[in-house]
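Hi V.,

Quick status before I head out on leave. The structure for the redesign project is tokenized and pasted below; the design run finished overnight.
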């Protein structure tokens, strides 16, 4: 069940913002690495990893952990 932002405690708000920042940074790092890395150094097709990076937060973590050779 969703609650309005202003009904959350300041700690909850900070945790949500911090989690969002981590998610954006992970996705950005994964996409930049994917674009710069030659296709021969990527396990599987690059386009599939780009689509996979849209699955948050599993996609970027999976690419960084197992998608690179």
């Amino acid at each position: 069940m969703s609650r309005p932002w202003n009904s959350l405690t300041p700690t909850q708000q900070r945790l949500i913002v911090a989690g969002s920042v981590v998610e954006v940074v992970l996705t950005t790092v994964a996409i930049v690495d994917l674009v710069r890395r030659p296709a021969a150094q990527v396990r599987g097709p690059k386009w599939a990893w780009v689509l996979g990076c849209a699955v948050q937060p599993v996609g970027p973590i999976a690419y960084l952990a197992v998608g690179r050779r």
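Above is the designed sequence. The chain has three helices and no strands.

G. will cover questions while I'm gone.

Best,
W.
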